[in-house]
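Before the break, one more example. Copy the sequence into your notebook; we will annotate it together after we see the structure.
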Amino acid sequence: MKVALVGNQNSGKTTLFNYLTGMNAKIGNWPGVTIEKKSGTIRGTKHEIVDLPGIYSLSPYSIEEEISRSFIFDEKPDVIINIVDSTAIERSLYLTTQLMELDTKVIVALNMSDILENRGISIDEKKLEKQLGVKVFKISALKETGISELVTEIDKKSNSEHIKIFDENLENGIAKIKNDLNDKHSRFIAVKLLEKDNRFSKLNNSKTEEIINEISKFYDTDLEEVIATERYAFIEKVKKEAVKEKNMPESITDKLDKVFLNKWLALPIFVVVMFLVYYLSVGVVGSATVDWVADSMDAFGEWVGGALENIGTSEWLTSLVVDGIIAGVGAVLGFVPQLIILFLCISLLETTGYMSRIAMLLDKLFRKLGLSGKSLIPFIVGSGCSVPGIMGTRIIENSDEREMTSMLVPFIPCSAKLPIIALFAGYFFEEHSGLVSASLYFFAILVIIFAAFVLSRVKFKNTSNSYISELPLYKMPSVKYVAKDVWEKVIAFIKRAGSIILICSIVIWFLLSFSFSMEYGVDIEESMLASIGKTVSWVFYPVLGQNNWGATVSAIQGLVAKEQVVSSMAVIAGLAEDVEEGSEIFAQGTPFAGFTAAAAYAFMVFNLFSAPCFGAIGALRRELGSTKKMLKVVCLQTFFAWVLATIVYQIGSLFENGVLNIANTLIILVIIAVVAFIIIRGIKNKKKGCTTCPYCNNCK
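Here is what the structure looks like once it is written out:
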């Protein structure tokens, strides 16, 4: 039996799904789109359950709503579980009234029933059943109560009962149209024909048009608005009959919002919160946790090396295993404790409801940049990994806004960039590593704001300025959910280390250990890798103040996977102990010995804003819909990163040594002048409505 789980966003749908499936869900994408699809088997049964995207109606106003409706019509689930936030029943029942019109068994699950009393709300589920014509159960997905009765109901046979919720004129019209339909869900389709829904336009005919015109005479507005008004009138009637509310004192959520959404305090609090996240994950707590991982990897490498020597393994094979595989993969795994803390902090902020408020808070600023609060969601997801962050832009309806957001998401420091930040910040800014790491996060926000400002005035002029979202109640995070979320992200990171990074580390070791004449054990400066790196290292001279072939090769490796930057540096440096603190990587005699603090910060900036990994580039290709567009974006990102890193290094060198390279300064000034010219012209032309300049779309 196939079961569909349908409900609003923030209604507890995911928590219920995880409990029903025992957190053993299969995750993929819906056919043709990059929105996540979750399916699993309900524990103790053979019932397949599919978690549909969070929606507010079955009208096709967003891709999520279209997916949910298509699933119901094309996949034909046997049962629909409609999870309803019982603390916001009026909003939730709008979707319920549409589900009631389907010829599919519907079960309503009133979630969060455990907190109804605290909010002064009383719901009579029996009266609600009578009003809606479907079975209703009170549950708490978080407390795991009432769910067994809900699952038992799935197997029970019941006939769908269509309750009449509209006025007499609409009901008569619906009945007439239904008589001419032989399709399943005929009542739902009849309503959609009245609303002139494009999906069902092929079922329209002259008789249907005549009925629609006849009904329209009774109203002063279009039938879609009339139907929506009638739904809300029915919901009010249901609520009056089955729901009782008491006047309660100010809730904890209201009290907290007075602080977190305060006009003057909201942004400073957000800055402090995000600073603490990075300070904890990269600073004091995070740094303290990597020691035992580093010691473990060192001991393991020594043990494996000794074991291989004892059995007579050749020198090159021992070097491959110890200096290539264990060194490369181990260099990245050493940062797992810091990633766990970062993922934990982000997950706690999301599950408590704080991140939803940040989206609303930044909406006003984002709208001035051609984005909306919806764009913040991909940015938040992108802090874990850029790939799902870019894929998450599908929730944005406006094409220009969606395209611009997908271009900017890779600028957010993702988990793959954390090892780079942790390595350089921990070694060159040891006493202030947490502060330096947090500064890069806020630097990324400023860069995103600047880039969005420029793009919205030069390239993307038709962006959306609307954003509607609900603020969930503040909740204590579910330990199970947070643990699962952190576990999945950490495992995904480790899998990358065990696959892509493993292969890349072997390639780096091979190029480092052999010359072009295939001689093994050559001096590092005579290796194939050094020769390749020296050929292109001049590109990074303005960024690093030196021709550093090791850093150049490592940065290029970042295109494969950003974690590979650290892994590549570890292999090149002939890694041994304490790679996480950089004492071996940046030691005298290694290709990285010439790094200064200014060069270190500039190198972090370049890797933060340059083209993302291959996985994210592939996601960009899918979202932009064109290889040509993707290549332009990747080149633009890399050039932009190079310019920023050059500026950072030159300014940093001025403070560090009191010397500013004149040639590089001139290059920077020219670039800044060109960018400033484009911005100013774009703003002026937007205000004047120019139709002849080369910077607006009207000329094309």
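The beta strands are 2-7, 26-29, 36-41, 48-51, 79-85, 105-111, 121-123, 135-138, 243-245. Residues 27-34, 575-580, 686-700 have pLDDT under 50 and may be disordered. Try to locate both features in your own notes.
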